[in-house]
């Protein structure tokens, strides 16, 4: 082979470039280390912290379907507590600082939720 060194170097570069997303994901930021400070006023969220970190978007989608399509505005947790299904009046009552709560985690995880196409982005706490 005339260009064996160039071919081998090209293959190595190709493999590194193709596998770089996997390496980046393994060393990437963890959503638990975003510096988010949970609200201190309320002792409990709608569900436990582990569930909310992993499934809050699914829960919000279910809430949207229940409230707007089935006209059910009450969410009952596994322990029997009732919550009003409302992003503005339930979730944002505690998580009112969009910049320091929602946005920090969404930016760290490279997600762009569509909540704010209908809802008003909450302002900072004064």
Automatic annotation (TrEMBL):
Keyword terms: Signal
Coiled coil (UniProt feature): none
Domain of life assignment: Bacteria
Keyword Translocase carried by entry: no
InterPro entries: DsrJ (IPR047668), Multihaem_cyt_sf (IPR036280)
Keyword Signal among UniProt keywords: yes
Signal peptide start-end: 1-24
NCBIfam families to which the protein is assigned, alphabetical: cytoc_DsrJ
Protein name: Hdr-like menaquinol oxidoreductase, membrane bound triheme cytochrome c subunit DsrJ
Biological source species: Candidatus Desulfovibrio trichonymphae
